[in-house]
Known about the structure:
The chain is an alpha/beta fold. The chain has helices at 15-26, 70-82; strands at 7-12, 37-41, 47-52, 63-67, 98-100, 107-111, 117-121, 137-139. The protein is globular and about 50 Å long.
Amino acid sequence: xxxxxxxxxxxxxxxxxxxxxxxxxLGLEPGAPFGPFLPLTVANGVTLDFATAGPDxxxxxxxxxxxxxxxxxxxxxxxxxEGGIPIQADPHGKHPGRINRNDGGRGVYFPDPSGxxxxxxxxxxxxxxxxxxNGTTEEVPGATLPD
Length: 147
């Protein structure tokens, strides 16, 4: 059997809030609670098991990146804008209110309720190094800027 990532635990201040937030942005549905976890399974079978660490717990921010289709990206971006979720084109916040066009695709970064850095992108990194769009960003009308 090949080695595959099966699941990972995502600590949150409130598992319901965090799992439902990400599910809503990605257009998915959380699964049934399993012990202390609320699972969210993506298309390749990997499950994000959201667990509540508590409202005052210090949670180390993690990064979760989702490779999506162009059509799914349209929906994700629309839900981010409609929900007033701050977006940026890069993980360092140098391009707020924008998306990136790396590898000829599109990418966006956004925070989850517990402070994790989420990313949705349409082309794997380095898949089109010859693209004239590498390093460019586009403004997203109506986007909420990070604080």
